[in-house]
Structure formats: structure tokens, C-alpha cells
What we know:
With 365 residues, this protein is mostly helical.
Amino acid sequence: MVEIIKGLxxxxxxxxxxxxxxxxxxxxxxxxxxxxxxxxxxxxxVSYLLLKGSLPDVTELATFSKKxxxxxVINENLIQAIRTCNFNxxxxxxxxxxxxxxxxxxxxxNDNSHDANIRKSTKLISRFPTIVASFSRIKxxxxxxxxxxxxxxxxxxxxxxxxxxxxxxxxxxxEKDFILIAEHELNASTFSTRITASTLSDLYSAIxxxxxxxKGPLHGGARMAVMNMLDEVDSSDDAEQYxxxxxxxxxxxxxxxxxxxxxxxxxxxxxxxxxxxxxxxxSDTTLYEIAERIENTVIRELVEKRNKPIYPxxxxxxxxxxxxxxxxxxxxxxxxAIGRVSGWIAxxxxxxxxxxxIRPRARSV
Length: 365
């Protein structure tokens, strides 16, 4: 009899050079570099690191950033595809549809050579923010904006979303958010992209697999659920009872617990500091105080009293940040995808470079 591991929990399925997680000690590294160091870099540098294996020098970064900025514009066909979307959907659904449509216009679609995949990678990383921002603007009755090539990845997204250039702190936090979610080893969506890539299907198809997987509420969709949860709590005084009711009714507390981390998710610590900074910058700490009270109650009731390693994950305080940034909950998962696409692509490139079809077995019962 072979032991069956439900959900493949802790099963080592492959080797990777892209990232490293130590769930017991709360360590996350991209290409050997700690997340606490990476978060202080531009997103373009981290994207380059993931795709190419090392941090860029000044010249390499300038060249890479220019390529990304030059590819931000989407053509009228893609704008029309966005206009055909049902605007009651999440932005994630629109992103998935438009990326599929985008593939139809790419002459490299079925060319799986490394050079062709790098060209496709540049388009995907550059255009995810444009697609999400354009969907949001059209949905809200505005015309989409042209990208601003003078702005960073995060600043340009916020500009295209809101129609005004963001302040320094907001830009900094958006960039850091993209970095913190850019890569996370064999999470569900990354594994799904590798499965698709292992069939030697095209890069667009692999990324669309990732988008579909990320949408789930037990993965990237948890960020939207956190934002909706925070709307249900009126004050920090109500937060404790809210958590106690969830625990008593055996309901999941969104934004807490992780399949890998048995201690604090290192990204959560960074997100918490950024949430506090943004709250103080806006002179409105109410939402942050509610979140902190929720966290303290969960830690007391589940970690300290019941010895369950249920700490805040990356979705919890990032959900607080998104609310301070004024992002609609239906945008949350697609904004996650904007950051994560670089990691997905890195894994697809690694899969293509040393491929074996991923095909596990099931035991018939």
C-alpha cells in the first residue's frame, strides 16, 4: 500500500533554483536573496532576477525596464475585448479572457524557443497592469489611459487606474506589494503553470492556467475575502467578538494560516509594517487597529491557547493595504496576479529548460 498525501502536502515534486522557503523559521528567498532585502529594490530588478537568475547591473536594469515600458500599451483589439466583458465579474476573469485574446495576436504564440518566450514574457509582465487598470476604468464609466513610460511599474499601474500620478509612499507600497507576491515556490497556481508548460503547451496557456488557479478563495482569492471580512467589522472593539464568533462556529478566518509556514509568514511582517505606515500617512488608523485586534485575538485563542500555528499570512495585511489604497475587492486577485506573473514565467522557463511531463497517478478505490 502506498501512502496517499492529500493535497500533495509537503511532497517534493521537483527541484528549483528560483525560490526557497523555510516554513519552520519563516524564511523566504528568491534566487538565494532574502525577501527582506529584495523588498527594497524596484519591481523591475526583482522581475529580472526571477527570469534571468541574478540581479541586474545598472545598464541591464535600464535596458530591461525600457523593454517593459515599451510593451505596456495594448492595442484597440484588446481594448474592445475588455469592453465585451460582463462588468459584474471580478477583474481576474477579465484578465484571463484578455490574456487569451492577446495570445491570438502574437506571432510567437507557438514558438517555444527561449528567445520567443522571453519576448512573450516581456509582453505579459508589461501588459497585466494595463489590462487590469483598463478594465477597472471602463467598468466605472471612464476611458482607459495610455501608460506613462516615465513611471515605475507600480506607479504606472496606479496612474492608469486612478488617472493621477500617485504620491511617493503609495508608489513605494505598490512596488513592494508586487515584489512580496512575485514568487512563492510551488504554490497551487505556480504548480498549475508548470503542469501546463510540461505538456510543451505555449507560455500564454501556462499563464492562463495560473490565473484560473489563483482565483480560488483558498489561494489568491483570499485577499478579496479579507477585504470583505474587514467590511463586516465596525471598530476595533467589535473585532474580538467577531473572531470569537467565527471560532465558535468553526468558520475559517480569512488571511490566517498557511500550508507551509508554521510561524509568521515573513511577508506578513513586512505587510503589517507597510499597512501601519500607510494608515499613519493617511491619518486614519481605524482599519489598521481593527486588523491588529483581529490578529491579536487569533494569536491568543488559536496559537497560545490551542497551540495551532495559525498566523497572519500574506493576504491579511495586504488586504488592509488594498483598502487604504482604495482598491475595489473585485480588483484584489488581479492585482496579486500583476506581481505574481514574473514568478510564474520563471517557473515555466525552468520547466521548459529541463522538461518532463508532470503526470502523477491515482489509486483506484
